[in-house]
Amino acid sequence: MYELFVLGELSINAKHGYDIQYMLKNTVGPIQQISNGTLYPLISKLVENGYINQRDEPQEGGRQRKMYELTEAGRQRFDELMAAPLEYSTDIELQLHFKMTFFGYVSKEIRLATMEQYLEYLQFNLKYILELESQVASKPEIPETKRAEVLRMFGHRRSAAESEVQWTLNEIKHINET
Fold it and tell me: For the chain, first and last CA: distance in Å?
């Protein structure tokens, strides 16, 4: 997942590791962070695989700064990752955010396929929530106090899922109109 982000950032222009980490931090938000111990081994692996080149850039004071740039193989890998389906997992929203960050660099068909797959995931999740909500509502053996609170929780999940479905439908419409 982070591979896509690094290759995407380097598809825009060459960057040093700090710039990549800064952009990544702003994309994932304040809670989920990527450590240097994860990012720099990933960058090293991308260099080893020939997806990015590393060059030293002189800095003031004689220190060298490592700059990274995308290779043609890296561009092809980026395109493959953008075209690949989302993985149904707990980080599907982060996967979507990474892909959306680089939608301007891929075809309309890839953007639509990504959003339609995400819509399918959301609709499946919403159906699941509605079924559970119905089951809880119809179980008299659940104490009323607990049932009321569980139904409130499902109401929250349903509301969030419905909002996310509507947002995704709007995004699909926007992609189709552009």
Answer: 27
